Amino acid sequence: MGTFIVLEGIDGAGKSTQAKLLKVWFEERGYEVVLTKEPTDTAFGRLIRRLVLTGGKEGIIDGAKISHEAEALLFAADRAEHVDKLIKPSLEAGKIVISDRYFYSSLAYQWARGLDLEWLIDLNRFAVRPDLVVLLDLPVKESMKRLRSRSIKSEFDRIYELQRRVRENYLKLAERFPEIKIVNALEDVDSVHRQIVALVEAILEEK
Ligand code: TYD
Fold this sequence. Notes:
Blueprint: E1 3-8, H1 15-28, E2 33-37, H2 43-51, H3 68-92, E3 96-100, H4 103-112, H5 117-123, E4 132-137, H6 140-147, H7 153-176, E5 180-184, H8 189-206
Parallel strand pairs: 1-3, 1-4, 2-3, 4-5
The structure holds thymidine-5'-diphosphate (TYD).
């Protein structure tokens, strides 16, 4: 069985940068790595981007034009395919799987939308639990600076408020799910990478 690592955090926390660095770290040690993300690049992911997300490259979730429930179900459908077609087979082949976002994103974001947390947890029960979830945590002010959002003020305030709730939710989820470890994402790229590597080494030792 391989090892499954997930990176989570608000938009602009540095997940994709750290995911790439971690991939290289593993490869230098001879591991075979599958780097993946949610929403995926499949037809499901594209549907989500079209129906749910706006904000261009930043991918900040907008006031969805579809119901929050439909939105949560689309993310779950995308994830079901992701687990079945890529994550499970890769783990069974003994590979390292690194995913930029996973069901914790649904819990943090769709909960922030006002959906019931317990319903969201039930909905995602099919999703295999990772060995480690790294929560890249940083204040929303900093993440918004990094995203250099050029949106108009009313838009900015709305996104800011959503991100603030999402951050709070992630921190609450870290108390409930023991696999979530919090890393301070305010530090520079290298020291965040070193913190993640320390967590990964602990997991590999346990196995
Ligand atoms: P993001 O990681 O920004 O993807 P990309 O850069 O490829 O567009 O994710 C897009 C947005 O979707 C982000 O704001 C978080 C949100 N999201 C959810 O609300 N629920 C989920 O289950 C997932 C996976 C993402």
